[in-house]
Write a structure and sequence with these properties.
globular; alpha/beta; Rossmann fold
Length: 403
């Protein structure tokens, strides 16, 4: 796809995998940064995009003397592109890392294709600025280069991280956070400020008393509009991630099945895109959890997606790979209580109270919230999502794309 942003564009935006967060970023830059010319490829067959996009763009991007800056995600082999198109080599070359292939999880380490990580290292070497969406992404990449290069049987390059680090920086992914107040249920709009004793395991005291899950629960949910004795809606859990193994759906589903076996009440919305055939665990989980499902599958209309997030109580990540976590922050923006692993990028963004160490801890936290959904519904999450918004980050992106 090609899109001309002005008669004399100065910024060339290239995206070999135009989907998901990659697409959102390109669209945001095109809309708000003047003088952009955009070339993309559909978000299909990621491995082939990483292998061949440079050749494709070398033939489809016209020569343009007004170009001053080239911006691309690290899916592109920038080294190949500038070798094929010397006219682009003179531009200020900005490489943006949504993820990195040096620590991207594979089911077996021997299955890791050396070429993808190697291409990213080469691209960094020819780039003028290397941008990472989180400190975790940057640190994990730079600290892994040396051990990664040891896979080469002999004549190994050395100290490449010392060449790349000085031109590296962290610039968080800019979220588009629309006003969702009209979509929020009444209890989210009327929430009272958070108190320490609203947590599942308050510091300095025993856990809050939990009602018997087999009893009919009649706690009053603040803001529900009813009086004492109103039946409390079951906890609504949302999982808004890609349907792939690196998001560890196996852990998520096994946890929910344990909740079901304990006869705890909950509702489930399973969102997120599927780019390949989803793991078999999804169809089996659909059968086992059928009575709990409210939404199952990708919602292409953003309005519908935000509506579900606004209706949900808790958003869960079980990821084994996450370099930023757009979906989690979008859910928090819509008033969801987050539960994330104490690993990857999450400690960089979420306070400790939202992190779990083990699958057992995740299960215990969800058990508590199923028994006391009012805890999640009263809670005001201590994450300032506005700091990740385009409004907050715009000036830094404008500076990045300035000549």
């Amino acid at each position: 796809m090609q899109s001309e942003g002005s008669p004399s564009p100065s910024v060339l935006l290239l995206e070999p995998f135009y989907g998901g967060s990659h697409k959102q970023l390109i669209d945001l830059l095109k809309e708000h940064i003047g003088g952009c010319s955009v070339f993309t490829l559909p978000a299909k067959k990621w491995h082939w995009r990483a292998r061949t996009a440079a050749l494709h763009f070398s033939q489809t991007v016209p020569t343009c003397p007004s170009y001053r800056v080239l911006f691309s995600s690290s899916v592109l082999n920038l080294c190949e592109l500038v070798a094929l198109r010397p006219d682009l080599a003179r531009l200020k070359k900005v490489l943006y890392f949504h993820e990195n292939q040096l620590v991207y999880p594979v089911r077996k380490e021997q299955e890791r294709d050396f070429q993808y990580g190697y291409n990213q290292v080469l691209s960094c070497l020819v780039a003028d600025v290397v941008v990472f969406n989180s400190a975790f992404n940057m640190d994990s990449f730079l600290s892994s280069i040396s051990s990664f290069m040891k896979k080469i049987p002999d004549h190994r390059p050395r100290d490449l991280d010392l060449l790349i680090r000085p031109k590296s920086l962290v610039l968080h992914y800019p979220l588009h956070l629309p006003d969702v107040s009209r979509l929020l249920p009444k209890h989210k709009l009327l929430r009272t400020p958070f108190h320490v004793d609203d947590t599942l395991e308050p510091r300095g005291g025993p856990p809050l008393p939990w009602s018997d899950p087999h009893e009919s629960r009649t706690e009053q949910c603040p803001g529900s509009g009813g009086g004492p004795g109103v039946q409390v809606r079951p906890l609504h859990i949302v999982w808004p991630h890609r349907w792939e193994h690196d998001k560890d759906p196996e852990l998520f589903f096994s946890t929910l099945i344990k909740l079901k076996e304990k006869k705890l009440e909950f509702h489930l919305s399973l969102l997120g895109q599927t780019f390949t055939d989803p793991p078999d665990v999804f169809s089996e989980a659909r059968r086992q959890l059928d009575g709990h499902v409210l939404n199952w599958g990708y919602l292409p209309r953003k309005e519908d997606y935000l509506q579900v997030l606004c209706e949900a109580d808790v958003v869960v990540s079980t990821a084994r790979h996450e370099f930023f976590g757009v979906a989690m922050l979008e859910a928090v923006h819509c008033g969801c209580y987050p539960l994330c692993p104490r690993a990857l990028v999450y400690p960089e963004i979420f306070p400790a109270e939202y992190l779990y160490n083990t699958p057992e801890q995740l299960c215990k936290r969800l058990q508590g919230l199923c028994r006391r959904p009012d805890i999640a519904r009263r809670h005001i999450v201590r994450v300032d999502t506005s700091s990740f918004s385009w409004t907050s980050l715009r000036e830094r992106y404008e500076t990045l794309l300035a000549t």
